[in-house]
Amino acid sequence: MLFWFSFVGFQPQEVAVGGKSVLTVTMLSSNKALDEVVVIGYGTQKKVNMTGSVAAISSSSIENRPVTNVSSSLAGLAPGVFVRQGSGKPGSDGATIRIRGTGTLNNSDALVIIDGIMGSMDAVNPNDIESISILKDAASASIYGSLAANGVIVITTKKGSQNKMNVTYTGLYSSSTPMNRPTFVSDNARHMRLFNEGARNIGQADVYSAATIALWDEANKNPDGLTALGIPNRVAYPNTDWGKVVLTNNVVQNHNIAVNGGSEKASYNLSMGYLDNQGLMKNTGLKRYQLRANVEARINKFLTLGTQTFASNQSVGMANTDNLFNFLRQTTPGIYPYYNGKYGFAPAPEEPVTNNNLLTYLDGTGGNNNTNRFNTTVYATLTLLKGLTFETKMNYQMRMQEQNSYSNPIERWDFATNILRSQASTPDQLTTSYSFNKDYLLTFDNVLRYNTTIGRDHDLGGLIGYNQNYFDYYEFSATKKGLIDYTSTTLSSASDMSAISGSEYDRAMRSYFGRINYAFRSKYLLEANLRYDGSSKFASESRWGVFPSFSAGWRIMEEPFMESVRPYIQNMKLRASWGQLGNNIMNSDLSRGNYDYQATYDKVNYSFNGISASGLVQSKYANALLQWEKTTVTDIGLEASILKGRVNVEVDYYNKLTDGILTTPPIYLTAGTKTAPTQTRRQFLTVVLK
């Protein structure tokens, strides 16, 4: 059941799953195909003049999909982009997105850029998106250098307009249903007979007695009848389908309202969003509140100021689902989940006491898990001369998570005898814990752009820029055991300290980059990019890396000899590119290559003069020659637009080689060796019809 309603209209669209080699068919108007402007790294460019491989996704393609996260909206919209959803648990976007496959043994996630700043895809509301550009080859992505080895997803949010104020509301109300729900033998009498048959097949005695099986056979004749204790037969002698108990249908609500408008001097786009996803499993629901304000003011004809600010608050359920599916195969249908405020226990005497009532795992942990995000960018654009602009921006983004978890006391009852079989843990055995973690990213960007036309035939453009960012993360957690009372779960209400820990790490990067474009008569296209990155993760002598790319394009339809076919073919372009990219975001957990130029030491106990003493032992050897892995990409593509833009064709062949992959367990390196001798290579032919 799905209801989608919008005051701005809705057009249904079929959703397909992207992959390595993709064939898609889309109907487009000729104007859109030829005049489409695409957002790329640090700028925009007409699609027909691009020499790199870029897939563009418009806001209408996203808005017309009833989804609640950005990753879901990408599925099937871009060739060479593979999207696989994660666990489906609310609160964890968890999607795996691969641009042209997996190119490393380490982190293969694409770089996400939101309004020109490195960010996270789950920190943007799909309804706020104006466009998405996916940079797939080195020519289009190398402007991001050591961050772009796995491709780049460039997200642009909506800005205000100079028109009158518009108020837009979109809403989604749907029933979420589990797919591929596991099925089990839910008739417990049959389950016991099959179990006995399996035991006999391996030469063992029957597990369940004939008398126990007979109890279920008799109860199954009248499930609604009452036992001598007044308990329904279906409860006392249950036949539980745990797949249906654990994975249930639930409701998803998503509401968004946006106010857009402005004048000649200022423009604004303000939006609010609310998401309530109850989840497919009990106590796994999510509630999220989001706000965005994009405001821009033209101070005079030389100066424009603006801000892009986003904030969100999210809370998720505390259910323990880590081992739920493992326990799901280990339980038995002879347990009734929950009745009259009590959790069930297996009434069959042959059942082990460890048989699982899965609801106790979903309800066994109480507390709250709350995450707050704040992301704001302040920018200024200065027009220095005709065609020459300077843009500077500063961004601060913060994510803060607070979590309190405690054990819920749970009793388990044998409903056939109405006897308490498993008592709740006493307060002195219960635990409570608090954890807090926070990270922030501070980014500075400065870009000087110049575009001009020399004579009538020569179009020249370029940019130079400087970027630096600093990231810091720290966390603290504490757990205590022995509560005074079930209902008091603060740390001071517990008696014994069980664990306490805390850590912090940071990293920084400084970059210089540039691009130059040249077009002769809009027919012969050349582009070159260069980025020079320095990362704090590596030693000073190996800290800097150069990442170049070169590309060229030939708009064949602009040639005089193609005049006769122009009524049938409106655009044809041949392009080729080569470039190198890096992987400076190898692992978020700092486990490979990060600060490995420094040795680490651990505490060790040893005997000194017959007395126990403590000392330090070197647990990791330093390697100052380590550096990021590099990916070299060669791409040759052909684009064509025929039948007045109704059909657009792209054919791409690319070769992608990743070299110097850092591996775990670590390979012991000899002097002069920079990285582990590991490579991956991918070669594909992609054909796209639009």
Q: What does this 3D model show about the protein?
A:
It is a single chain. The chain is mainly β. The protein is 9% helix and 48% strand. The strands form 6 sheets. The chain has a 17-stranded antiparallel sheet. A hairpin with a 4-residue loop joins strand 20 and strand 21. Helix 5 packs antiparallel against helix 6 (210-220). The protein starts with a strand and ends with a strand. The model is unreliable at 1-32, 665-678 and 686-690 (pLDDT under 50).
- Which structural category fits the helices and strands? mainly beta
Main sheet, how many strands, which sense, barrel?
Answer: 17 strands, antiparallel
Global outline: globular
- Binned, the helix content reads under 10%
* Gyration radius, in Å: 31 Å
Would you tell me the overall average pLDDT?
Answer: 85
Number of beta strands: 32
Termini separation: 31 Å
- Measured by DSSP, the beta-strand proportion falls in over 45%
Q: Given the structure, what is the number of helices?
A: 10
Which stretches are poorly predicted, pLDDT < 50 over at least 5 residues? Answer: 1-32, 665-678, 686-690
Key terms:
disordered C terminus; 690 residues; mainly beta; five-stranded mixed β-sheet
Task: Outline the secondary-structure elements.
Elements (H helix, E strand, L loop, with lengths): L1 E5 L23 H6 L1 E4 L2 E4 L7 E5 H5 L6 H5 L6 E4 L11 E4 L11 E4 L2 E2 L10 E7 L2 H4 L10 E6 L8 E11 L11 H14 L8 H11 L12 H4 L5 H5 L3 E13 L3 E12 L8 E13 L4 E14 L7 H5 L9 E2 L2 E3 L14 H5 L1 E21 L2 E20 L4 E3 L4 E4 L8 E24 L3 E26 L10 E27 L3 E12 L8 E12 L13 E14 L17 E9 L2 E10 L9 E13 L4 E13 L19 E11 L1
Parallel strand pairs: 7-10, 17-20
Antiparallel strand pairs: 1-11, 2-3, 4-9, 5-6, 7-8, 9-10, 11-12, 12-13, 13-14, 14-15, 15-18, 16-17, 18-19, 19-22, 20-21, 22-23, 23-24, 24-25, 25-26, 26-27, 27-30, 28-29, 30-31, 31-32
